[in-house]
């Protein structure tokens, strides 16, 4: 059984990363509230440094390293947001960063990683290729591997967004986050349940990448089944660590259609005038598909990120 | 010579509209500052109600009406943002709103006006058709015409964004706003120069719709010359009122290319993760084209609005 972070671990992470992260704003939309019959608070991690919540976890993992551990730099594999976040956090600590990325990653995400000064090694877009290429990079450089989500300190960092959200919105009934590898949902659910046990925590996942839903329902960690969704941040499957956390702290996971994700994304863009990536729109899609579960409730949503390729929009 | 608002008129407007408008946030981007060598503060009127600064002027004009004046409603002609703003402000005061719009107006803007409950009469996309159609509407309904910019109270309302901006950013060297009909630049320049006379006020205008630039340079109000720009909020020409104000209070007007407008808009979308319409990007385009005028200076920019048709993006 992996060791699970507690609220005090997340609070310690917050103290550690606070000088380096944005305290992102919480936005609301009267029109979206009217459409959904709900009362929604959007925690804007699309405004976080490097454009996503991933910067919190990456910063916590990097700042927690001893000088000796950090000396040879850090490495990771990621389709995008974690890579950019780790690259920026490494640059701020002044250490090297090595990133293994699939050659199919969005151009904006590749560019961001390069701009932050990381060294990129491209691989095939399979988990196998990622992992074997990463092994070679770590062996060659002696760097420390920081996993995108299967990492105690990364999960703690991601949970800090919920500390800020709950601090801003008292009386929150429900907190919801998208779930891919489960780092965000894991940190979110520990933070929310530990701050106030009455808070209901939901995950939101594309139907076309529903391994977390199947894992939670079966009680056994399920493999992904050819995930194919516009929410490209949610393609990965849970790890043993995040599955253990989510099984313990998350009340349920909603799965949503691709059409609902695009509809929710369009509502956020048009009505809130903010840019979010498809993964961020998955929780609102869950509200649109299941309005009765949220009616009259105060729901906090983590808008996970805003890194989109503007030349490839779904509308 | 038309009567020009003073700082105390704008302060009175602010007191009047404050319960009804959002105090919009001021955003910054380290990357845009690095690219431009400047220090830019973006006043996010794209987050204003109805998605644009126009709501300030419309609200001030409507809330300043006596009960008797307001009784038969208000009317206007507008290609979009003023119409939506007036419709919402009228709905909040509980009075009727009649809008004359060119049938070529963007669908999102037509929809917004309808959603706020205004009655739309479509006209040809010419100033003549707008004005004659409006005359008929006013005659038929007995409503009060609220001009989009050639109106004392509207100019005062638009100036309130600058009061908030300067209150938020002390030591601002330059304030810049896009210029179409001149309501925003007029209110902005009175507010900025009156709060602190050392502040430099610039207008920013598309080269392809440069009537304000030509008017300021010649000292004589110039007609538009077939304006054709992606910045569809800036197609209109100054009025006698706004020309008089801008001549007195604005230091200079920069004109920019269409390519720069699209480049600036893309930078704002990609790096700041916010949605702005092309008109809003015109001041940043002026900085990109004239970096030396802004280098090392603290520049406040009014991001005028965020109402775009997502199916018709320039990238």
Count of DSSP strands of chain A: 10
Q: What's the number of helices of chain A? A: 13
> Judging by the overall fold, what is the CATH architecture of the largest domain in chain A?
3-Layer(aba) Sandwich
User: What coarse outline of chain A follows from CA principal-axis ratios?
Assistant: globular
> What count of domains describes the coordinates of chain A?
2
End-to-end separation of chain A: 44 Å
Percent of residues in helices of chain A: 40-55%
Which strand order spans the largest sheet of chain A, edge to edge or round the barrel?
Answer: 1-2-10-7-8-9
Stretches with pLDDT under 50, minimum 5 residues of chain A: none
> What is the helix/strand order of chain A?
HEHEHHEHEHEHEHEHEHHEHHE
Provide a descriptive summary of the structure in words.
The structure is a homodimer. With about 325 residues, chain A is an alpha/beta fold. Chain A contains 13 helices and 10 strands. In chain A, about 55% of the residues are buried.
């Amino acid at each position: 059984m992996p060791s699970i972070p507690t609220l005090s671990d997340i609070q310690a992470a917050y103290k550690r990363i606070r000088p380096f992260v944005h305290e992102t704003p919480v936005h609301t939309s009267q029109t979206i509230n009217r459409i959904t019959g709900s009362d929604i608070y959007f925690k804007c991690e699309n405004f976080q440094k490097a454009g996503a919540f991933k910067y919190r976890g990456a910063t916590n993992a990097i700042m927690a390293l001893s000088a000796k551990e950090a000396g040879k730099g850090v490495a990771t594999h990621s389709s995008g947001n974690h890579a950019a976040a780790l690259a920026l956090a490494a640059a701020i600590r002044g250490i090297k960063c090595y990133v293994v990325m699939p050659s199919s990653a969005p151009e904006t995400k590749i560019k961001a990683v390069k701009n932050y000064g990381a060294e990129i090694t491209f691989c095939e877009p399979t988990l196998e290729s990622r992992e074997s290429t990463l092994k070679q990079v770590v062996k060659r450089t002696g760097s420390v591997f920081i996993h995108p989500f299967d990492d105690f300190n990364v999960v703690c960092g991601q949970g800090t967004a919920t500390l800020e959200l709950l601090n801003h919105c008292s009386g929150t009934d429900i907190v919801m986050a998208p779930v891919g590898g489960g780092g965000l949902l894991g940190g979110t659910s520990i933070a929310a349940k530990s701050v106030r046990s009455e808070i209901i925590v939901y995950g939101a996942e594309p139907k076309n990448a529903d391994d977390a839903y199947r894992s939670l329902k079966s009680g056994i960690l399920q493999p992904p089944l050819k995930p194919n969704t516009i929410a490209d941040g949610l393609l990965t499957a849970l790890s043993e660590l995040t599955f253990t956390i989510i099984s313990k702290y998350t009340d349920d996971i909603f799965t949503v259609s691709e059409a609902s994700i695009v509809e929710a994304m369009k509502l956020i863009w048009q009505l809130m005038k903010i840019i979010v990536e498809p993964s961020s729109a998955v929780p609102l899609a869950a509200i649109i598909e299941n309005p009765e579960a949220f009616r009259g409730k105060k729901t906090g949503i983590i808008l996970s990120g805003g890194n989109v390729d503007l030349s490839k929009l779904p509308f």
